[in-house]
Amino acid sequence: MTEPSRPSRHPLMQRIAALQDIQQYQELNWEGSFEDYLDLVRDDPRVSRNAYQRLYDMIMRFGTRTYTEYKKQIVRYKFFDDPFDDGKDAVFGIDVHLMKLVNVLKSAALGYGPEKRVILLHGPVGSAKSTIARLLKKGLEWYSRQPDGRLYTFSWVGPEGEITPAPMHEDPLKLIPLEFREEVLADINGSGRSPYPIRLEGELDPVSRFLFKQAMKDAGGDFTAVVSKIRVRRLILSEKDRLGIGTFQPKDEKNQDSTELTGDINYRKIAEYGSDSDPRAFNFDGEFCVANRGLIEFVEVLKLDVAFLYDLLGASQEHVIKPKKFAQTAIDQVILGHTNEPEYRKLQSNEFMEALRDRTIKIDVPYITKWHEEARIYAKDFNKKRVRKHIAPHTLEMAAMWAVLTRLEEPKKHNLTLLQKLKLYDGKTLPGYTEDNVKELRKGAIREGLEGISPRYVQDKISNALVRDGGDSINPFMVLNELESGLSSHSLLSDEELRKHYRDLLGVVKKEYEDIVKNEVQKAIASDEDAIARLCSNYIDNLKAYCLKERVKNSFTGSYDEPDERLLRAVEEKINIAETRKDDFRRELMSYIGGLAIDGKVFDYKANERLHKALELKLFEDQKDSIKLTSLVSQVVDKDTQARIDIVKQRLIDNFGYDDQSATDVLNYVASIFARGDAKDSA
Ligand SMILES: Nc1ncnc2c1ncn2[C@@H]1O[C@H](COP(=O)(O)OP(=O)(O)OP(=O)(O)O)[C@@H](O)[C@H]1O
Ligand SMILES: [Mg+2]
User: Fold this and answer.
1) Rounded distance between C-alpha atoms, residue 592 and residue 609, angstroms
2) Backbone φ and ψ of 310, nearest 5°
3) Which of 49, 239, 252, 481 is the most buried (most CB within 10 A)?
4) pLDDT computed for residue 489 by the predictor
5) What distance in Å separates the CA atoms of residue 193 and residue 33, rounded to the nearest whole number?
């Protein structure tokens, strides 16, 4: 006898008890009679959806977002943000391909044909194929625990109360003999409560058929008496519990045996039941049996031995499997395979595999070719929750930039660099390039996204950089160096020329990084708003005087002076306004300011991007010398300069996400660039 439970005094136990949800537990462990189940189905026929329908509905349950790209509407399924694990398995940057996948699932849910195919995710190594499969499985497990995703199966209860679960956890409705099913289903479907007509394919599994026949005999053909021996229960899909989710991974070729897919004879039980044709002496524990009602994933499906091929073909095309010594048995599950590019190419030339090729729907899962989408992968992996060290701004972005560069094909137009192409793909605009041009660029590069460096390589190198000794932070150079030194031992890189190309691209990234930080330091130095505002009003006063051919009042001496042409030009040169164009520029700006004045508005330099930039650069130039940035390199800094430098450093920390160390590093680095004397003021 069990004692009634009494609240524990242990605080941790109390915490656990508070977290427990008894009602949910009871719902998830619901049991009832066959008739109770019929009531459930009538109320909500969705409990009897097939595996494709359930999977598709699960994805759609999380909703969608749409956006336009190259004038096409793209749907983002929020499911792919990974709502289950805090975004751990989120998939970015390949929405067009995910759309294809979801459309195939939709079509399969509606019974239009893809449900008779193997869905084959195909792409280069490390392109998120396994991630997508894992996410789908997690989604199904989760959905089966929700009220709207629930599903049921049954067990047989013997005369002495012994329980025999339906070994392939089938829907209890399958107990209805084929000859009556149509009528019952018509009744259920008549309610219009399910988005899909419920269909039940095929007969029961061999064990249930055997027990059903026996029970029929005992009951003299009374169906009601037979199903009274049934206990219906909720089915919670779980890969760990081997319920409704399966994974099949080919081992070495000699060891492949089809019983792994369809189950095997249990020799110990033959003695008990007296015959090897008694289905109760058979273990329905092959991966297809396990995965029934949910999803089976075939890892590296093309490495499958031909011996398995027929099982796979039957399972997809006919929805049946053939366990040894038993009749074909109906199954209901999504079949998802994946393979990487090299294996797929082998398939192309393998006649044996032709039958399979013909029965697959290939979904490409390429690498990301959009810089900032790639950066999201690393931001997700190395976020603040997971990493203690400070990661200097741009570190992950620069690694992502390199990864994407290695995947891009050299633009055929001569005046476009690879880096410019990357920026165009990333959504930047470049003079002379329209959206249509970018689309054309993409179309012209067929192998793009199928080659290059995998995110996995970059992930490994970033974590190497993170664990390297010393310092509380990492910066882009540490990661880029790590990426470089790994190249010589990269197992997938045998081609010396390619290796050199990848090294050169690291140089491109370093150069780009240099420009970015130079710009940031300039901004930090010049982001003294009061000083910019002063400079701006000074510029505008002189501009007005120039345009109206007037004089400017000198606030110092009170005298009226000619407009300060040197100041005007110094600002304008920062944004490359040529001497010959200066009058146009000034008149335009003047009439813009005049227009604002008519509307009673005041000119704000921040609203004019070009002028804002020019002012910032001019201010930087003025202040650069006063804070003696270059003297940083010499390490001998007077107190006054140090104070100014500290202000800039603080701005880098406050406005750009640096920490003390990385801000110092970046200031030193930029100072060294200026000391080299190759500083370009105009960026
Ligand atoms: N588009 C993407 N979005 C988010 N993460 C990605 C993407 N592509 C790759 N990754 C990340 O790269 C890593 C490798 O992905 P995964 O293991 O799914 O690749 P795979 O295609 O199965 O590779 P393989 O062919 O080697 O088995 C994972 O950490 C994954 O999160
Ligand atoms: Mg994989």
Assistant:
1) 14
2) -65, -35
3) 49
4) 81
5) 22
Expressed in angstroms, the distance from the first to the final Cα of the chain is: 82
Q: Would you say the CB of residue 130 lies under 6 angstroms from ligand 1?
A: yes
> What confidence category does residue 632 fall into, taking pLDDT thresholds of 50, 70 and 90?
low
Q: Decide if pLDDT at 318 tops 60.
A: yes
State pTM to two decimals: 0.85
Place of tokens 């021996």: 229
How far from chain centre, in Å, is Cα 73? 19
Q: For 436-448, how does the pLDDT look when each residue is reduced to its tens digit (9 = 90+)?
A: 888 988 988 888 9
370/378 Cα distance (integer angstroms): 13
Decide: 156 and 229 in contact? Cβ < 8 Å.
yes
**Does 126 contact ligand 1 (Cβ within 6 A)?**
yes
Crossing angle of helices 371-381 and 395-407, rounded to 10°? 130
What is the model's pLDDT at position 245?
97
Which of the ligands is closest to the CA of residue 343? 1
Tokens coding 37: 């189940």
Q: Which ligand has the nearest atom to the CA of 298?
A: 2
Nearest CA to ligand 1 atom 10: 128
Residues 344-388 have pLDDT tens digits of 887 777 776 788 888 899 999 999 999 999 999 999 999 888 888
DSSP state of 630: T
Q: What are phi and psi of 146, to 5 degrees?
A: -90, 155
Distance CA 95, CA 65 (A): 11
Distance 132 CA to ligand 1 centre (A): 8
Amino acid at 185: L
CA distance 150 to 172: 13
Atom of ligand 1 nearest to the CA of 124: 25
208 lines ligand 1 (CB under 6 A): no
CB 655 within 8 A of CB 527: yes
Measured in whole angstroms, how far is the alpha carbon of residue 665 from the centre of its chain?
33
